[in-house]
Amino acid sequence: MRQSYLFTSESVSEGHPDKVADQISDAIVDLFLSKDPEARIACETLTTTQLVVLAGEIRCKGVYENGEWVPGAKEEIEATVRNTVKRIGYEQEGFHWETFRFQNNLHGQSVQIAQGVDASASKDEGAGDQGIMFGFACDETPDLMPATLYYSHRILQRMADDRHSGAAPFLEPDAKSQVTLRFEDGKPVACTAIVVSTQHAAGYDKGEQEAELHAYVKKVVADVLPAELLSDATVYHINPTGSFEIGGPDGDAGLTGRKIIVDTYGGASPHGGGAFSGKDPTKVDRSAAYITRYLAKNIVAAGLAKRCTIQLAYAIGVAKPLSLYVDTHGTGTVGDDKIEAAIAGIEKLGDLTPRGIRTHLGLNKPIYERSAAYGHFGRQAEGDFFPWEKLDLVDDLKAALA
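Predicted structure:
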């Protein structure tokens, strides 16, 4: 593995148009799962100037039954969408939570898809789709995430917190960040470049107000990144295009699922191509990506490797995975094949079927909107939220490989 290099990852804020779409889609997932833990949801969202459109397929008791909406359900869906946009903070002429046009084009799930996924007397519940899913962990940060992505997320989270609290009233919701680090012997040793583009209030693109914005961003970076990574040689690009008053869905259309690298590992790991938001956990795009992160993180936390990539593969309608692959990139303390065998032998993991994953991680709950901005991984497990970040498999792995 190459030891000396530059690497870059980006993040986008909760107000980025694609992230607005992701959060709306996951707010709908949470709404439906709160009504029916066995709900099936595939909800796509389009956002643009003063418009939000939902499309997709659902099956949900208490919301959509026998091909009809339950009374009040459509109104509750619209209220959920508007409240999500309000929480993000959009009250602009080009996109306002209270006045945008709303279209709900959700409809019933295909019976032909459902018959392949549903359990029956003759077969286990199958995967909601075919595909490959990857999980990753490394020892670059306390949360066992790639450092470039970890700091990119933290910069934007701090800015969003300041915007919501009123500490930075000149910030608007849309923003992007990018962090470039130099690695030596596989460890981050210096930050060579920071890019932050943030939507701002009128006037903060010139003169003293622009200087105030730039000084604020540099202070956030200094608060977030370890001091030893920053120096006078760090190059800053803050709003490099100049003005950024028009942003969010008014500036660019947003779609669910277009930020899959931001959502995962910032390019430090392969990606199977499937997005997460808008999908219930029978969709292995989501649940299998979560279990592979969980496994990889516990492997690194157990001291079995410094870096770990795991792949699972599934076929639609088939319960058990087609393959399990572990790669510790030459950093493992035992052979990768032994780690694979250990995973397969841990009884409480079951056989990594969709239902087994959901049961082990507790995924049939309304826990997803919180994951739809600032990354699904590298977050602190808290109550029912982010259960795939728990480190409760460390002892089992150590025992299996003793």
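Summary: The CA atoms of residues 11 and 383 lie 26 Å apart.
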